[in-house]
Amino acid sequence: MTDTLRPGLFLSFEGMDGSGKTTQMRLLIERLRAEGYDVLETAEPGGTPIGRQIRRILLDSANQELSSRAELLLYFACRAQNVDEWIRPALAAGCVVVSDRYTDSTVAYQGAGRGLPMDVIRGLYQFACGPTAPDLTIYLDIDRAIGLARAHARNAEHAAAGQTDETRIDNEAAEFHDRVYDAYAALAADEPGRIRRIDAAQSIEQVHADIWAAVETHIAAHSLSKGPRHV
Ligand code: TMP
Question: How do residues 153-190 score in pLDDT, each as one tens digit?
Fold first, then answer.
């Protein structure tokens, strides 16, 4: 369902918490910019100023009453705003858009994790995003126990530093995270053309090299041009 008429390139990063997404996104974006590409960096949930407000509701561990259906709708509300305000205009202008998570996360966390119906998720995806889908998704595959341990260590550091609480989903039971992990594995197996699975247990340098190889191939296939764009 990719929007093939647009000149930009849409990349998303996916994986369990603690898979090294943030580090690898930063390395990729630095390299793309050094090569002369105009990059829009965004995140789900988050990105736009409105999206960042929605992110606070979604991730604050004080919001224990948030129902699964309300949670699902908020993730898509955030994404619709991101697509309308940032992603679609940037792609139309020929930018490389790099998003920290997108709808694969909703399939994994709300579909498999919460057990919400996949046909509802597919319908909301169509409504919220239309044809705006990633050309390439980098899936950082990390052992679930290692990922969760890293995520908990990071959350403890953030709490000690007095930073915003973003632990509501990380605090879910191990079985929830097991279902998320299995869903990612199934997505990667179902869509090998779009989703590139990368072993996140390798060194930071090797993971980056694998990501760059996948991205370069897509840049070449897209005949993407360099230089600043006017969004
Ligand atoms: P992160 O920005 O640190 O990756 O945290 C976002 C959290 O939100 C993470 O636990 C995954 C979760 N999430 C969902 O449950 N559904 C979604 O659609 C997205 C984008 C994220």
Answer: 888 888 888 888 888 988 899 999 999 999 999 999 99
pTM (two decimals)? 0.95
Mention every residue, 6+ apart, whose C-beta is less than 8 A from residue 206.
none
What class has domain 9-222?
alpha beta
Output the ligand 1 site: residues, CB below 6 A. 17, 43-45, 59, 75, 100-101, 105-106, 109-110, 169-170
Cα of 148 to ligand 1 centre, how many Å? 13
Which of 26, 109, 118, 177 maximizes ligand 1 atoms within 8 Å of its Cβ, making it the mutation to test the pocket? 109
Distance 133 CA to ligand 1 centre (A): 17
